[in-house]
């Protein structure tokens, strides 16, 4: 599997493309749909689904454009099932960046456990705290965790936004992420990648 990262949207949110053959899973398309479409066209790739680590505005900005153009479903956690269609929940109204980013709810809701989408196999970890529906995607065969805004290099997701829970976030990081192999690559929602081992040793929020 090839994993490609783009920094998209108003806050430079990391969007990850999971490529296998000519098929693509799109994780957190935060904006700039034209950038993604150009990449798909240039490499003759076919998106088959959109995965959301959570539904804050900076992670969903291009959802509707990509979903509509390629007629593909959106997968997310049910705890945020209303966030795509409610600007007061996804934060776009709070931050004054537009009333709404998407007009339709997700097609599928993910629970913790293994999932298969065509030839893609991975695990969903339920890691709320930054937001109530935050999930992380564990690609065991690649030793990669796509962590959204749960864990960053040397930091953690903010919990001062509505519905955040600091104690819950720390607990989930320690129990579900730091229990993964130390050499697991952690791909966060913003900023550079890190490893589980690095964060165990040096993250000031976890020690």
UniProtKB/TrEMBL annotation:
Gene3D superfamilies: Ribonuclease Z/Hydroxyacylglutathione hydrolase-like. Its cofactor is Zn(2+). This is MBL fold metallo-hydrolase. It comes from Piscibacillus salipiscarius. Pfam families: Lactamase_B. Keywords: Hydrolase, Metal-binding, Zinc. SMART domains: Lactamase_B (SM00849). Residues 12-190 form the Metallo-beta-lactamase domain. InterPro entries: MBL_Glyoxalase_II, Metallo-B-lactamas, RibonucZ/Hydroxyglut_hydro.
